[in-house]
Amino acid sequence: MDSMQRWTLKWAHGEATAQSLGGMLAPVRFELGGGRSVSPLYVAPWGDDDRWPGLLRGLRGEWPCLPFGTVQAPPDLPPGFEKTHAADACNHGYGANHMWHLVERAADRLILRIDYPPEGEIESLERTIESDPDAPALNVSLTVRARRGTILPFALHPTFAIPDEGIEVLACPHQAIHSYPVPPEPGVSRTLPNQAFASLKQIPTACGPMDGTHLPLSEQTEELLQMVGCQPPFVLRYSAQQADVLLDWNPADLPDALLWISNGGRAYEPWSGRNFALGVEPVQSFFDLGRVVTPPADHPLAGRTGLAFRAGVPRTIRYRLSARPLTPRPASHDDRVSRALQ
Fold first, then answer.
1. N or C, which end of the chain has less CB nearby within 10 Å?
2. What is the pLDDT of residue 333?
């Protein structure tokens, strides 16, 4: 088994580390000025552990998934959903589960690459992680080279930390939200399956609406929701750090965001009831099921079949992760009087 390598990029407004496994990016620290900083990307609580297969060995932060999604269809799909077979056994794609190598390391950027198996449609992935010299921000690009023309489910997989003090999910303008066709974690997930709704503040459950705009949630659960027609940036507020964290991408490439709310709901190892994270995954796919499930033709997401790649024509996807300090609200007259009376 190849050993893990990590490379760190430092600049005036922060530092960021990328690793060979999955090309994953984390941790990232953004400096906000005045001695304040925010580290928004998730690192799995079990750290590096070679007992686990594939991407679980060092799960963290952000990475690209091609082809995106699970390789095993869930049981008990609703009527009209058909199961298909994935062409390989790598959850979230070969690149998420294998080692990338460092192509270039400069003062302001890291370039990583992975070559795919010779029998597949995809030849290679190359990603550049570049610091913004003027801001707490990273500009990231992924270039995909294909051997043969193909359409594959694709997603980026930014996964954000949820500290004990919580975060606020400001999200982004969108058209609708769809719940997973089945409970993503049977016996644990609370959202009613195969539903469409308008707001994260009103997620439908058997016990009434659940507010997904403040995390962590009060009860253990695991949820997968597809936010359709996103208009990025997607914004998370880390109030304890007085920071907003923004994820921006081109919705012409990736029209939706798949939200993975991991709220301590997986009791089995390595999760062990201790995993709290929010995946905000810009996506062109039917949930994470595009490789193994075909939805009914009249499902609103039936057209989310993936990105097209042409033989010999590189395709580049660009995105940006940044932070900005919250501006304190000026104290009103009533606020000042209230404090004086305390």
1. C
2. 45
| Domain locations in the chain as residue ranges | 6-341
Residues of the chain with pLDDT under 70: 1, 328-342
Locus of tokens 């990232």: 28
Give the DSSP letter string of 330-342.
Answer: PPPHHHHHHHHH-
With contact defined as beta carbons under 8 Å apart, do 7 and 15 qualify? no
Instruction: Give residue 193's pLDDT.
Output: 97
Helix (DSSP H) and strand (DSSP E) numbers for the chain: 2, 25
**What SS3 class is residue 287?**
coil
CA torsion 292-295-301-307 (nearest 10°) is 40
> CA-CA distances (angstroms) from residue 182 to 155, 156, 268, 276, 294?
21, 23, 20, 21, 14
What is the pLDDT, as a whole number, of residue 2?
75
Dist CA 91 CA 72 (whole Å): 9
Instruction: Tell me if 173 sits within 8 A of 154, measured CB to CB.
Output: no
For the segment(s) 6-341, the CATH number from 1.25.40.80, 2.70.98.10, 3.30.565.10, 2.60.40.1220 is 2.70.98.10
Average pLDDT value over all residues in the chain: 95
Torsion of CA 182, 186, 191, 197, to 10 degrees: -10
The two tokens of residue 318 are 């660009």
* Cα–Cα–Cα angle for 30, 17, 41, rounded to 5 degrees: 55
Picking from 146, 143, 145, 155, the residue whose alpha carbon sits closest to that of residue 68 is 155
Q: How far apart are CA 233 and CA 169, in angstroms?
A: 12
What is the per-residue pLDDT for 1?
56
In the prediction, which pLDDT does 330 show? 52
pLDDT for the residue numbered 327: 77
Cβ atoms 251, 231 nearer than 8 A: yes
